[in-house]
Design goal:
Elements (H helix, E strand, L loop, with lengths): L4 H18 L9 E7 L18 H8 L2 E7 L5 H10 L3 H4 L6 E2 L7 H6 L4 E5 L17 E3 L7 E2 L14 H7 L10 H13 L6 E7 L7 E2 L7 H31 L7 E7 L4 E2 L5 E2 L6 H4 E2 L1 E4 L9 E7 L3 H9 L14 H4 L4 E5 L8 E5 L2 E13 L3 E12 L2 E3 L4 H7 L1 E6 L15 H16 L5 E2 L4 H9 L11
Helix pairs in contact: 2-8, 7-8
């Protein structure tokens, strides 16, 4: 029977209308990808990771629709090198960003560059100065918003500067002169991200949104040595409320994504750059140790259509694996990377994660005579974490003229390096050093440290101007401590 032309046309019109209402798009168009980074967020402070002292309903809802990785590890415990690893799929030993006089070199291939070459619109919204384009993370982004609106500096102008802890005296003195903006509140980050999402629905996009989250929000220049402990206690007490606030703002942003016509074609990855020590061992902060409180981070991956929702992965994975995971979602590839695709089970897990921190440089300085010369030294941390164990080495490096060098005599490094080994299965809080009693584990992990030392690539160095230094100090990082203590 000959088809009725009017009926056929009517059916086609209904199909077109349905597609328009559902905002359907071609199956060969890759998904939108949203990467949410929360600064200084511990995995063990979130509801889906078992924390019950506060509720984080937005992240819990996201986790219920996602794959949750229980043992995700950041390869360093401070922001710039950690996020350089995420953006390159490389360890700091490979991409060269290890200390504050490094920036990500233009020769490094970034996630945004690969995605842009694969027809993605790329955008980033940063929540703190640590992600300023000054440090090279803007490579490959069509839009990089690093505008800050708040200072992290609080000063009591009515009181003279008191005597501060000796190691921080110059640091605090310089913070008296801190007048530049260093962050913006999570509410402003969410507002900016929502506005960008609502205005960019025409093409597949990669959007990276960085919330400052529970990172400490003020650095008081008027805290005396006597009051320092109580001040840190105050910062510890603020941590959970700040996590709650972050959850609300992340939830508001995710709700906005949900309202977009292409939500079912959008992947969302939620993670942190590092954690925070909350005085479990008497110390507050991050960057100066490699305990799980600072390197165990949340990692949650919501696939388009909530595919594989509720899956939990217990094996160790790494923050830098986000790189290959995003590229897999986008149908893109990159060569010569350390990263592995978290979604491909056969390739997903690594036997271990390499971890390090060079933020101790300048804070742990000393002098020593080496080969007949008096040299200025500092201490760095390097480690290996497996599912059940962690080895950390405290090793000396040269630190002269604000430049770091590991070109010390090997025998000197060997004699001065101090090892700590923790059995995470029986001692998850890392309180007991078993380096002497577990020689077999030590013997297995020490060569892995040597492997990463052998692959070190020099970083691109630069001199930070005074404005940059002041903004970094307000965030708690003092890349060039003064000698006038």
């Amino acid at each position: 029977m000959r088809p009725n032309t009017k009926d056929t046309q009517s059916a086609l019109l209904w199909i077109l209308l349905a597609c328009s209402l559902a905002a359907c798009r071609s199956t060969d168009v890759p998904p939108n990808i949203v990467l949410i980074t929360v600064d200084t967020l511990r995995a063990d402070r979130l509801t889906p990771y078992g924390y019950d002292k506060i509720d984080t309903p937005a992240i819990a809802q996201l986790a219920s629709e996602s794959i949750l990785f229980e043992q995700a590890v950041a390869d360093t415990s401070w922001t710039l090198p950690s996020l350089s690893s995420v953006m390159t799929g490389l360890y700091p030993t490979q991409h060269g960003v290890r200390s504050w006089n490094n920036r990500l070199a233009e020769s490094q291939q970034t996630l945004a560059e690969v995605l842009r070459s694969n027809s993605y619109t790329t955008a980033a919204i940063a929540g703190s100065y640590a992600l300023d384009r000054y440090f090279g993370l803007a490579q490959g982004f069509d839009h990089y918003d690093d505008t800050m609106t708040r200072s992290l500096f609080i000063q009591d102008p009515t009181k003279p500067k008191p005597k501060a802890p000796k190691v921080l005296d110059s640091y605090l003195a310089r913070m008296h002169r801190q007048h530049t903006n260093a962050y913006r509140p999570d509410s402003e980050v969410a507002d900016t991200a929502i506005a960008w999402i609502e205005g960019n629905q025409d093409t597949p996009y990669f959007l990276w949104v960085h919330f400052l989250g529970p990172h400490e929000k003020d650095k008081r220049a008027h805290v005396s040595q006597r009051d320092w402990n109580s001040y840190e206690d105050e910062l510890v007490a603020r941590y959970d409320p700040d996590v709650t606030t972050m959850d609300q703002e992340v939830g508001r942003f995710v709700d906005a994504i949900h309202k977009t016509p292409h939500f079912d074609d959008t992947a969302i990855i939620f993670h942190s750059d590092h954690g925070q020590s909350l005085k479990e061992r008497g110390k507050f902060g991050h960057g100066t140790d490699l305990f799980d409180s600072t390197v165990h981070v949340p990692l949650i991956v919501r696939l388009p259509g909530a595919e594989r929702a509720g899956e939990r992965v217990r094996d160790i994975v790494r923050n830098l694996d986000i790189f290959s995971t995003v590229l897999n979602l986008a149908g893109a590839t990159a060569e010569n990377v350390e990263s592995r695709d978290l979604l491909a089970e056969r390739n997903r897990t690594s036997d271990y994660a390499y971890i390090e921190s060079f933020l101790t440089i300048g804070l742990l300085g000393h002098e020593a005579e080496i080969e007949g010369r008096k040299r200025k030294l500092s201490t760095v941390l390097k480690g290996v974490r497996t599912n059940n164990a962690k080895l950390v080495a405290r090793s000396p490096v040269l630190f002269e003229n604000n430049r770091v060098s590991e070109s010390l005599p090997p025998e000197y490094i060997e004699t001065k390096t101090k090892l700590s080994l923790y059995d995470l299965s029986s001692d998850p809080d890392e309180m007991v050093n078993v380096v002497r009693s577990q020689q077999a584990v030590r013997s297995k992990l020490v060569p892995l440290l040597a492997k990463h030392q052998a692959e070190v690539q020099p970083g691109e160095e630069q001199d930070l101007d005074e404005a940059a230094l002041e903004r970094l100090r307000s965030l708690g990082y003092d890349p060039q401590p003064s000698s006038d203590k």
